[in-house]
Amino acid sequence: FSQVWTAIKRHLPFDNSCRCDETIDNGIGISWSVEIPAGASVTRSHITQVSLGSQALLVSLRADQASVVAGAGNGYTITISNHTPHQTLLNSISDSLPAGFAYVPGSSNGATSTDPVIAGQDLTWAGPLVMEPQETVSLHFGVTAASASGVYRNRATADAGNWTVAESGLTAPVAVATGQ
């Protein structure tokens, strides 16, 4: 514990070590070097269980294609991981599409093949969906890309009642290019 705070106080990077097999007071720190170009943003995240607290369900999101022509088809895969030793019930899975993107009806597959409820850019697939301990589920769906050029990011999450869910964050960038 004191070694972690000493490194923070002295502005030192952490040494990528773990004293996980020792019975000592716990402490944790993460230090990442990240270069951020002017006018850009970068997101980094990490979830670590300290002590015997409950673990979160982890949501990740990936685009089928990193770049497309304006108005072209693409898709996303939402992956939810239950790293807990408990059966968990997902009440819903949600995605916030980037502005100008549209869901392709009938394209859902994986965890469910039912179309989501759509409210603006927000898609919500209703549960219940039972996740066994250590299980990972995926939901894939198709989209039509925006008509304006730019880099678009997406966000996914789930509702698991009393369980903590770590959403994907603003991720899965898709570069849309116009034919000009």
Shape: flat
Radius of gyration: 20 Å
What percentage of residues falls in helices of 4 or more residues?
under 10%
Multimer state: single chain
Low-confidence stretches: none
Q: Quick check: average pLDDT?
A: 87
Q: What summary fits the major beta sheet?
A: 6 strands, mixed
Binned strand content: 35-45%
Number of helices: 1
Cα-to-Cα separation, first versus last residue: 57 Å
Number of E-type strands:
12
User: What letter string, H or E per element, gives the SSE order?
Assistant: HEEEEEEEEEEEE
Structural class: mainly beta
List key phrases describing it.
180 residues; mainly beta; six-stranded mixed beta sheet; 1 helix
Outline the structure in words.
The chain is mostly beta strands and 180 residues long. 4% of the residues lie in helices and 41% in strands. The chain is built from 1 helix and 12 strands. The protein has one helix at 2-9, and strands spanning 57-63, 67-69, 73-81, 88-96, 102-103, 109-110, 117-119, 122-131, 136-144, 150-159, 165-166, 171-177. Strands 1, 3, 5, 6, 9 and 11 form a 6-stranded mixed beta sheet that branches. Strands 2-12-10-4-8-7 form a 6-stranded mixed beta sheet, with no helix packed on it. The chain is flat and about 55 Å long. The termini are far apart. The relative contact order is 0.23. The model has no long low-confidence stretch (mean pLDDT 87).
